Structures are given as structure tokens and as C-alpha cells.
Amino acid sequence: MDKLVSLCKRRGFVFQSSEIYGGTGSVWDYGPLGVELKRNLQDRWWRAMVRQRDDIEGLDSAILMHPRVWEASGHVGGFVDPLVDCSNCKKRFRADDPKIKGVPGTPDAQCPACGMKGTLSAPRLFNLMFKTFMGPVEDSAATIYLRPETAQGSYVNFLNVQQSTRQKIPFGIAQIGKAFRNEITPGNFIFRTREFEQMEMQFFVEPGTDMTWFEYWKEERMKWHQGLGLAPDRLQFHQHTRDELAHYARAAFDVQFDFGGSLGFQEIEGIHNRGDFDLSQHQQFSGKKLEYFDHATNKRYIPYVVEAAVGPNRTLLALLVNGYREEAVEGETEGRTVLGLSAALAPIKAGVFPLVKKDGMPETAHRIADELRPHFPVFYDDSGAIGRRYRRQDEIGTPFCITVDGESSADNTVTVRDRDSLKQERVSVDRLRDYIGQRIVQ
Ligand code: GAP
Predict the structure, then answer these.
(1) Å from CA of 209 to ligand 1 middle
(2) Residue 164 pLDDT more than 90?
(3) I want to staple 273 with a disulfide (CB 3.0 to 4.6 A). Which of 211, 251, 343, 385 is the partner?
(4) Is any ligand 1 atom within 6 A of the Cβ of residue 192?
């Protein structure tokens, strides 16, 4: 993880938020390469969920919502973690932190940070929602929340979307957006942060068909994660036990990825059968009917919801962990660091280099880069030895490197080097766009 954090900063994937002021706790900024990678991931999800299906509609609901939404959803009363603090070192922990020895609030309990005994408070409940005020008056009547999930925006818009698109059940609503949680124990780089994004799809189904759809979405989502290039043996399902189930869930499975080290297998996506909990609650709290009328069967009902909720930030970390490797290179003293991202997700698709800075090679390389740039992101580089330039692209996951050399002016060809096999092929300049274009669509 330390190596990844350092690579991410050095090469412009992820920076600490407000770093020059000492940083903001567990909030991160995405640099030039990070934002490209995250966008590629989000576009891929949007394509799979919305563009390639006729039974899911897109939505972009606001972060700020009516405060009653969060009462209805159960977040005001129930979105809490038990918190304990140490009166000696002032650090805070979740009461169920396995590093705590003894029962917090008793003299035997030991602080996992400073090691003092008897300094941990008894657990108290801490709501994870960020509060703020709407309008100029800072009182309880003006309190609103930064949303802790995007899902509620889809529930309160259920009828708006259904009626405007004339979708019939079963159908889904998908959205990508920011969510905020005042996590007590954030950390592990971008794994658990206080500001993050979600890609959530709510699938509305007829009661009684929910478990069939639940199984369907479980399989679909696992296939999607495998399609990103995450190693199949690093992916697994985890079924929630009765104790783990959220208040709204009838059944839940996590897709887990093996992050290695002390993290091990952790959730990157949750698939939940939420029953009619959400729509029933919003119907009750808003006083507005949220029923669906099925003309074919003349039945009126509140649909059940099967949800597939994935975090792009956490999935991006999984891609970095999955792809990072250090390897020796035959015949060279210096090894190389490679980010084995799939060509479709890699932030830069091709590096373009003149072998040397003379004999018209820079001009030709510039021309090639300019011709390719409208079609996919490329990076022109003429500084340092060619081996160095290859290494710089390898460690950011660039799948192809194009080199203009002495032969290029004679036969209008260049070499294209493959990041993983290290094989070099001579390709005609006229074919470059198709050659790379075909290999980055997956
Ligand atoms: N609407 C259901 C819901 O929000 P969740 O399991 O709490 O379910 C879904 O969140 C996904 O959002 C998680 O699998 C994870 O990828 C991401 N996520 C949740 N909390 C996060 C945090 N604090 N930092 C980064 N990602 C987070």
C-alpha cells in the first residue's frame, strides 16, 4: 500500500486533499491520471447499466435532499456507529475495533493507540451523516444533510422516472454521484474515506420475483468485476448473516476483493434485496402514493427493490492493487514497475516517442501524437533514454508505446511495444489508429 500511495502521488493519480495545509483527514483529490482512470471506470459502469440496456434509466439527483428523506430512510435514527474515545491520547475508535482489549468503559479496557488502561469511554452512538444548514439561519429547522448514499434520490424519483419514460416493472434507475459519511475509522488510503462516490442501481421488481432478480444481479455484477481485469481468485461473494444485515435488507451479498496485507478480502460492492422498505417508508413519510399499477394483471403494488451499489474509489484501489507489479527485465540491471491495467481502463493509451531528437523524428512523432489525440489519450515524450521513457509509461499502465526511428521516414512505419509481452511490432503509421483503437475496446 505504501508503494502504491507513493506512486499515486508521484505520477498524479491521487493527492491528499489540501495537502499544503497539512491535509484533510481521509479526503483525497484525483490528479490528471486518477481522474481519467476513474472516469473510464464510471463510463464503463454507465455503459453496462444504462446505455446497453433498455430496462434501466439514468438519473442525477441532488446531494442535498429534504431532511425528512433521511428520517424515512432510517438514517437519522439508525445510521450510527458506536464510538469510544481515549481520555489520555484523545484518539477515537469504533467500539467493536478488534484491536481494543477488554470492554470499553471498564478499568481493564486498553487503548489500542497509547496502551493506557481504563481510559476508554463507554460506547456512545455517533451518527455518520454530515450536517449543515440551508439558508441564513443556523437552527434545527434549517438542518439538512449531505447524502450518505445516492440510493434515496432514486427512490423519491421512482414515479417521476417511471411515468416520464413509461417503463414497466421490472426496470431500474442508475446513478453515479458523491456521497459523504463521517466515518469514525476511515483509512487505508482511498478505501474508506469521508467523501467518496457511488455507482448505484435500484431495480424495481414485482414482489415474489425479488429473489430471482437478486440472483440475476449477483451473477451480472460478479461478471462485470471480472471484466475489469480483477483476478478471479481475488474476487469472492460474502453473504451477510442475520446479524450483519442492514435494517432495510431481506438478503445481501458483498462482492469482495482481496486487497492483500492486513486488509485481505473486503467489500467493493453490495447487492441487496431491500424489499419494499424504501418505497413504503417514503410513501408513509411523504403522504404520496408510490404504488405501481400493472395494466396487464390489474394489480397495484409497492415494488420491491434489488440494489447493486459499488464504489468507484474503492474499485479503483482494487484495480491498482490488482495491477501493480515489480519485475526483472531480461538483459537489464534495472527492473521495472508495471501497472497492469486493462487497455480499456488505462488513463493513457499510447506513449509516442522519437528515438532521438534529430533527423526529423520529433516532427514525425509530434504529427502522429496530434493525429491520435482526438481518438484516445496519448502522451508525447522525448526526454531521456528510450528505456526510461518505456519505464515511465509502464508504471502508469500505458498499454502501448510507439517509437519513431531511423526506418520510419523511409517506409512510414513505427514500432509499437506491448507493455506486458514487451514484444515490438512494426506497424504502418496509417494503421496506428485502428491497431490501437481495436485493442483498447474491451
Ligand atoms: N445504498 C447502499 C449502500 O450505500 P454500502 O455498502 O454502504 O451500500 C456501497 O455502500 C459501496 O459504496 C461500498 O461497497 C463501497 O464500495 C462504497 N463505499 C461505502 N462507504 C465508503 C467509504 N466510506 N469510502 C469509500 N467507499 C465507500
Answers:
(1) 26
(2) yes
(3) 251
(4) yes
